[in-house]
Design brief:
The protein has 917 residues and is an alpha/beta fold. It is 32% helix and 16% strand. It has 30 helices and 28 strands. The strands form 7 sheets. The chain has a 6-stranded mixed β-sheet, with helices on both faces. The longest helix has 21 residues, at 301-321. The radius of gyration is 30 Å and the shape is globular. 48% of the residues are buried.
Length: 917
């Protein structure tokens, strides 16, 4: 089939459009992007050039409509323009964005940033005044009326949009990204645009012999960018996704037309700019090219050089007289990237914001970018550090392979884990100590870099190491405690000196107790507490414990703060009264504060009981080590970067302002190599915490470094296996309405969701897939027989499933599935999960009386958790059928308001053993 051509005979009468979005000016601390103005000019020229362009000038919508460094761009205006284009365009729709892009710490949810965009500390909604590619842009464009949609993203992390690329069934849609997932790109040249867009312009305007199609562009742009390097020396490889045949983006150029010269690749040995005043960057050849051609032809070489020199001197003089560059003459500061534990993120961010480093001109010398990642992801990434610079060429469709750029973020300069145990696990098996006092530097080629060796108990060869982890000392302390409501009975003598299992045993005497802690995958503190929690537990007890937590809080909180917020929201009153929580002392102290007290978390309510801290003797202290991170090959500004890291560490460890950032949040300062007693202004000394915490700490466990690696790895393995092997039965609504609603096939469709979630199932798990669209009285169709199955075969069967012109028998399917999963009641601790995937039509049609019976059945033992996936809104609203099934079974209801793909994988992982394997 020939590629779609907007200028083709049958398409000329259709409405075409290009929405060109360029954000040059940013408020707050984010740098402006002067090259964006040139980018918009280049794209305008490429799309509307008389001979090669596929669009006319009237087909362009530019945002902002008028340029200039002060022009602002509002996300609401952009969204409105995309919505208008979705409804009005019937031919070719091109959307182009140039500006800043940002992602969550796990690499998900690319957000396009605009003039007033900002980042908050809310983990659930961290970005304000942005547009999410996944939640805002893609949903609008997915239902465009256009024959073809082409999106081009020129921003940092543009490649992260690929994971949420989900066109509608049958839609022609192409996405071109400036780089691969997790890669940041340079800001470009104010005069010539960014390297990516300049290369794209050349390809669109100089094609010879045949039209320039999207597939031809992909090949050409990758070749054009091969000589360049992205930020941190990453290979610069544009990426793409395409759904449909092909589309013409430019016509062949006039053979006699001269080809614009390619921009030479930037020098790779130069450092990223640090501090100081800008000096004028005056490319004289570029200025000469702007002169009238007739004048240029008459100029001699000498005349040209004299003119270029005069222009340069004039420009330099004007720059000097006007006080230097816009923004007060300050160049972009040196950026330090600080990776930390999710429990520590708010406090470390507060300290980074207070860091005052400036140069002699009063310019900010160092910018601190703080981000967090799951503690287990950070350790795994450092142990496989080469994957940061050389990601796997391909991952399975499920995405279950290690990609540090996606799972953690950019390469850090500093790592502040919650405890030395994380550093020890990252460096275990290296044969050398990488700790170093402040001021000491050991290069990344030393044994410190060997942190990527395989974990204990494995024999696979480790990926090549490119990282050095140099420990420089602790910056604060806080112990892990068991926070017990002060309404519960427990001997005061057990507040200190007893192991965790003894404290829990004392609590369970004569009263109901629920033990809760955050996900040990996410924070080091939760993992240390889990190690002690499992120490005296058999395998069966561990499984029962974890299933109980999953039932109490179906979505296990990621941090101690999230756990306390969940208890404070008023929906878990009975649980809150019985919950003893394993959290850092500083978190407990903050939530004990009365309303109106400084430092009290915003989510705290009167529903939350005052809690007393009990200090288990077998849970190590959180000692917040400061770790300098160095990278092989990152030599361009190594000296300046090392100096900045050491200065930041010295400030954190010694400066009163820095210390106050931590003590205000309930941490203990460092004194003589250990935790100091809290000062008078500490949260720990407040009236609310007078009887809740100990002023002087008892000994709490061994040093977090001593023998921690093997025991914590074992605890982590037990945690991952505690909910498996499991039984998982999928009920797949295959009625024709699923196809009519366009939720059956393609990315984000029912079949793809089921197949992807199977990544959480292992060889020991029993699972099956049944289709519910059958004639009255007939049992559901067995698509995949319920037993231990090969995942590849099961996915192939799901991929080949077809809809049936029959109603889905939801009630019958649920009854039969519950019966199948409960056939072996003796295996009471084995996890059981029922997953129903539907568009909601036949699901909501179940009679009310039948709904009541099914909800009652969901409460019976042995427990079967029910996860309902509704691909249309409504079924998960409070009080609806899906919500009641989830509440009765300790399951969950997912709808388009959730990230269904991620949520379903996580829910299946609670029953399956694929992740543990």
């Amino acid at each position: 089939m020939p590629p779609y051509d907007a200028r083709g005979e049958g398409n000329r009468a259709k409405r075409h459009r290009a929405v060109l979005i360029g954000v040059e000016h940013y408020g707050g601390a984010r740098n402006d992007l002067p090259a964006v103005a040139a980018n918009l000019r280049l794209m305008r020229e490429a799309l509307t050039a008389g001979r090669t362009g596929v669009l006319g000038p009237d087909d362009l919508v530019e945002i902002p409509a008028s340029g200039g460094p002060g022009a602002t761009v509002d996300p609401l205006r952009v969204r409105a323009a995309l919505t208008e284009a979705r409804e009005e365009v019937t031919g070719l729709l091109v959307v182009y964005f140039a500006g800043h892009g940002i992602v969550r710490p796990d690499g998900s949810d690319l957000n396009l940033m605009f003039t007033d965009s900002r980042v908050t500390r809310d983990r659930h909604h961290p970005f304000v005044d942005t547009l999410s590619w996944r939640d805002d842009v893609m949903p609008v464009l997915r239902y465009a009326r256009a024959d073809w949609v082409v999106v081009i993203l020129d921003c940092c992390f543009a490649g992260n949009a690929l994971g949420a690329f989900g066109p509608a069934a049958g839609q022609n849609f192409a996405l071109l990204t400036a780089a691969e997932p997790g890669v940041e790109i340079p800001p470009g040249d104010p005069g010539g645009g960014t390297e990516f867009t300049a290369a794209l312009h050349r390809l669109l305007t100089t094609g010879e012999g045949e039209p320039v199609t999207f597939t031809r562009i992909v090949t050409g742009i990758r070749e054009a960018m091969a000589p360049y390097k992205a930020v941190d020396g990453h290979p610069w490889i544009p990426d793409e996704r395409r759904h449909g045949d092909d589309v013409v983006l430019a016509h062949a150029a006039d053979p006699g037309r001269p080809t614009p010269p390619e921009r030479p690749p930037p020098r790779q040995d130069g450092a990223r700019r640090t501090t100081g005043r800008r000096r004028p960057d005056l490319p004289a050849p570029a200025l000469l090219r702007r002169l009238p051609p007739a004048l240029v032809r008459r100029m001699t070489r000498t005349t040209a050089l004299v003119l270029a020199g005069a222009v340069a001197l004039a420009g330099a003089g004007a720059w000097y007289l006007l006080g230097g560059a816009r923004g007060g003459g300050c160049d972009s500061p040196l950026e330090l990237r600080v990776l930390t534990d999710p429990d520590l993120r708010p406090t470390v961010q507060k300290a980074a914001d207070a860091y005052p480093k400036r140069d002699g001109d009063g310019c900010r010398a160092v910018s601190i970018n703080v981000y967090d990642a799951k503690a287990t992801d950070a350790v795994a990434a450092f142990r496989s550090s080469s994957l940061w610079q050389e990601p796997p060429a391909a991952c399975p469709a499920s995405g279950d392979c290690l990609r540090p750029q996606r799972d953690v973020g950019a390469q850090p300069d500093v790592w502040i884990p919650a405890a030395g145990s994380a550093w020890q696990r990252a460096t275990a098996g290296t044969g050398g100590d990488t700790s170093a006092p402040a001021g000491t530097s050991t290069g990344p080629g030393t044994s410190a870099a060997a942190a990527t060796s395989t974990a204990p108990g494995t024999s696979a060869a480790a990926p090549r190491s490119v990282v050095g982890l140099h420990r420089m000392g602790s910056i604060a302390y806080t112990p892990m405690v068991l926070g017990v409501p002060d309404t519960m009975k427990l001997a005061q003598s057990m507040q200190t000196g007893d192991p965790l299992h003894a404290i829990i045993g004392g609590l369970e005497t004569g009263q109901a107790v629920r033990i809760l802690r955050p996900d040990p995958e996410d924070t080091e503190g939760a993992l240390l507490a889990t190690g002690a929690l499992y120490a005296a537990s058999s395998a069966g007890q561990v499984s029962t414990l974890e299933q109980g937590m999953a039932q109490d809080l179906p979505s296990l909180p990621s941090t101690a703060r999230e756990l306390m917020c969940a208890l404070a929201d008023g929906t878990h009153n009975a649980l809150e009264d019985q919950a003893a929580v394993l959290v850092p002392e500083q978190t407990l102290a903050q939530f004990n504060l009365s309303a109106g007290e400084p430092g009290r978390p915003s989510c705290a309510t009167e529903a939350l009981a005052h809690r007393v801290a009990h200090y288990p003797s077998d849970v190590p202290m959180l000692d917040l080590p400061f770790v300098r991170v160095t990278w092989a090959g990152a030599d361009r500004d190594a000296e300046a970067r090392a100096s900045a890291v050491e200065d930041f560490h010295h400030w954190l460890a010694t400066d009163p302002v820095a210390r106050k950032c931590f003590t205000d949040d309930g941490f203990r300062s460092v004194e003589k190599g250990g935790p100091a007693p809290p000062g008078e202004d500490s949260v720990l000394r407040s009236e609310d915490n007078a009887t809740a915490v100990r002023e002087r700490l008892p000994v709490t466990g061994t040093d977090a470094d001593t023998g921690a690696s093997a025991s914590l790895n074992a605890a982590l393995s037990r945690y991952r296996q505690a909910l498996g092997p499991g039984k998982v039965l999928y009920l797949l609504d295959n009625s024709t309405s699923m196809e009519d609603q366009r939720v059956w096939d393609g990315p984000g469709g029912a079949k793809e969701l089921v197949a992807r979630s199977m990544s959480s199932l292992g060889a020991r798990d029993s699972f099956g897939v049944r289709m519910t669209a059958v004639r009255p009285g007939e049992p559901p169709t067995e698509l995949v027989e319920f037993r231990q199955n090969d995942r590849a075969g099961a996915r192939k069967a799901v991929a080949g499933a077809r809809t049936a012109a029959l109603d889905a028998r939801i009630a019958e399917g649920l009854r039969g599935a519950l019966g199948t999963l409960r056939q072996d009641p003796a295996a009471g601790e084995q996890p059981r999960l029922l997953v129903l995937v539907t568009d909601g039509e036949d699901f909501e049609a179940v009679a009310k009386s039948e709904q009541e019976k099914l909800v009652a059945s969901a409460r019976l033992a042995p427990l079967v958790r029910i996860v309902t996936v509704s691909l249309r809104d409504g079924a998960c609203a409070a009080g609806r059928f899906g919500d009641r099934l989830a509440a009765a079974s300790g399951g969950r209801c997912l709808d388009p308001a959730d990230d269904i793909a991620v949520g379903l994988v996580a829910e299946v992982a609670k029953a399956g053993t694929g992740d543990a394997e």
